[in-house]
Design goal:
The chain is mainly alpha-helical. The chain has two helices and no strands. It has helices at residues 12-29, 36-56. The longest helix is centred in the middle third of the chain and has 21 residues, at 36-56. It is elongated. The relative contact order is 0.20. The model has no long low-confidence stretch (mean pLDDT 80).
Length: 74
């Protein structure tokens, strides 16, 4: 959904960021579990690239009233 219309999905950026950061933090706390380090690294990279995408696509603009065009469903 974000790949097709990154500025038309209200709350989707924030939900995705919350989930990926939460999984990364959880993996950091349970490093004694098998594959937790792999999960920490993988989700840490995904979190980093998602934050970069949020900044590059200006994801915070989805909350502005003018973010959707005049013909878009609100």
């Amino acid at each position: 959904m974000l790949a097709l219309a990154p500025r038309k999905q209200r709350g989707m950026w924030e939900l995705l960021l919350f989930h990926k950061i939460a999984v990364t933090i959880q993996a950091a706390f349970i490093l004694d579990v098998p594959n937790a380090l792999l999960t920490l690294i993988a989700d840490g990279l995904v979190s980093t690239t998602t934050i970069a995408g949020y900044l590059l696509c200006r994801g915070w603009h989805t909350w502005h009233r003018w973010a959707l065009g005049p013909n878009d469903n609100r």
